[in-house]
Design goal:
By secondary structure, the chain is of the alpha+beta class. The protein has a single domain, classed as D-Maltodextrin-Binding Protein, domain 2 (3-Layer(aba) Sandwich), CATH 3.40.190.10. The chain contains seven helices and four strands; from the N terminus they run ααβαβαβαααβ. Strand 2, helix 4 and strand 3 form a beta-alpha-beta unit. The N terminus is likely disordered.
Length: about 180
């Protein structure tokens, strides 16, 4: 199963077991929130923004940053953008799964919130579109020394040899909420 489909598959399985109908969406429909009566089922957390241990963007590393000074995910993406575009020879790169998974949609939202669309034409040279499965994407990011965004489950499930080549720069509070209509 690909990306966000895993979360939807789990919610769908729960719907069969507990006999309820489900609609999986990866983005909040704020205009419909007031019209729909829904029940929260499950949350899938996007907790990590892993990147190369060499840290070419000089991002603060979470375990070494006091909790009250930990930067937001928006600050980290902004810092990454500034470092990536600082010079034509910058070796700062970001790997996007670019597969329309929940993580990719959340990543697109973050870039948009800081006023950037690196996937637009002309394509940013530092933005790497990668459309493989989550484990392969983390492996590619670790081998190529690129930053990325992933969910907690993928980070914990990927082979430890891949995690050893990377460091987590933020344990964010971003999450995907799965709901069921009542």
């Amino acid at each position: 199963m690909r990306g966000g489909i895993i979360g939807c598959a789990l919610v769908s399985l729960l719907s069969l077991v507990f006999n309820f109908e489900v609609l999986c969406l990866h983005i909040a429909l704020t205009s419909l929130t007031y019209l729909l009566d829904y029940t929260k089922i499950m949350i899938n957390r996007l907790i990590s923004k892993p990147g190369p241990k060499s840290n070419p963007a000089s991002l603060p590393i979470s375990p070494h940053t006091p909790a009250n000074q930990e930067p937001t995910i928006f600050t980290l993406f902004s810092s990454l953008f500034i470092a990536a575009t600082a010079s034509p020879t910058s070796n700062v790169k970001f790997l996007s799964r670019y597969d329309k998974s929940a993580a990719n949609i959340k990543e697109s939202y973050i870039w948009s919130m800081i006023g950037q669309t690196p996937w637009a034409h002309p394509l940013s040279t530092w933005y790497h579109r990668y459309t493989e499965f989550p484990f392969q994407a983390l492996k590619a990011a670790s081998m190529l020394g690129e930053y990325t965004l992933t969910d907690r489950g993928t980070w914990l499930a990927v082979d430890e040899s891949i995690r050893r080549k990377m460091v987590v720069f933020v344990s964010s509070y971003l999450s995907h909420l799965y709901s069921s209509l009542k």
